[in-house]
Amino acid sequence: MDEKKLAIIATKGTLDWAYPPFILASTAAALGYETQIFFTFYGLQLVRKDTSGLKVSPLGNPGMPMKMPFGPKWFRDINWNMPNAIQSIVPGYESLATVLMKQTIKNNGVATIPELRDLCREADVKFIACQMTVELFGFEHSDFIDGLEYGGAATFFEFAGESDICLFI
Amino acid sequence: MNFNKELDARGLNCPLPILRTKKTLNEMGSGEVLKIIATDPGSVKDFAAFAKQTGNELLSSAEGGGEYTFLIKKK
Q1: Count: domains in chain A
Q2: A30 vs B contacts (CB less than 8 Å)
Q3: Is B53 exposed, middle or buried (0-12, 13-18, 19+ CB in 10 A)?
Q4: Alpha-carbon gap, residue A22 to A117, rounded angstroms
Q5: Cα–Cα distances in Å, from A43 out to A96, A118, A137, B55?
Q6: Active-site pick, B6, B8, B13, B14
Q7: Distance from CA of B71 to the nearest CA of A (A)
Q8: What is the CB neighbour count within 10 angstroms for residue A117?
Q9: Residue of A nearest to B22 (CA)
Q10: In tens digits, what is the pLDDT along chain A, a chain of 169 residues?
Q11: B14 touches chain A (CB under 8 A)
């Protein structure tokens, strides 16, 4: 049986959207898929050396439950969703939401992004960064983790054209 | 049932139990049996799917006291 192939385009640069590409890529690799992720636009944030800039925003995100990751059960069950107008004027609201989300992630035994990213690398998932957006956003290659390859749309299609599954995230 | 190695995946959530299992199987020989203990309810379907796709045989899948125990024989 030929090795199956999975091609992913990662375009989002927030903590919550960092999960799907790395979870799917690492799992596919464990199942024997040859896997590539093409990081473009905000997705470049996922391959920076420093991932502390990855945040989650409850603003304009009605699907996100706002629950406390500590305290007694009745307290944890309260949903703290607030109107957008209030969220937008409270300084540090996004940073606070991110701290709480990271604690929730830890409480649930969910891996961190650097951990999942390392697991992908160990499993030989190939990472390609879009050179055009690197320049567009004023990044340097030194901002990114080692071992990245840099290329454009044609590079992506070279692998994606042969893939069994292709995902845009 | 006999097993050659045991993996404690308790408290870990998707996809970590599968990734740790794959890593541990890599260090084992063909025909050896790995026992995995997990607490993620999603792992029941996931381990069956993992076995089916990788060709490693799922010898047993059991549940008890909020824990799930799997025995996988390496291909």
Answers
A1: 1
A2: 15, 18-19, 21-22, 50, 54
A3: middle
A4: 6
A5: 22, 17, 12, 34
A6: B14
A7: 17
A8: 23
A9: A30
A10: 578 999 999 999 999 999 999 999 999 999 999 999 999 999 999 999 999 999 999 898 888 888 899 999 999 999 888 889 988 899 999 999 999 999 999 998 999 999 999 999 999 999 999 999 999 999 999 999 999 999 999 999 999 999 999 999 9
A11: yes
Tell whether B53 is within 8 A of chain A (Cβ): yes
User: Looking at this predicted complex, what is its ipTM?
Assistant: 0.84
Does CATH place domain B5-73 in 3.10.100.10? Answer: no
Q: How far is B13 from chain A (nearest CA, A)?
A: 5
Q: Structural domain boundaries of chain B?
A: 5-73
CATH of the domain at A155: 3.40.1260.10
Tokens 């607030």: give the residue: A82
- Cβ-based contacts of B12 with chain A (< 8 Å): 109
Domain that holds residue A127: 5-53+112-168
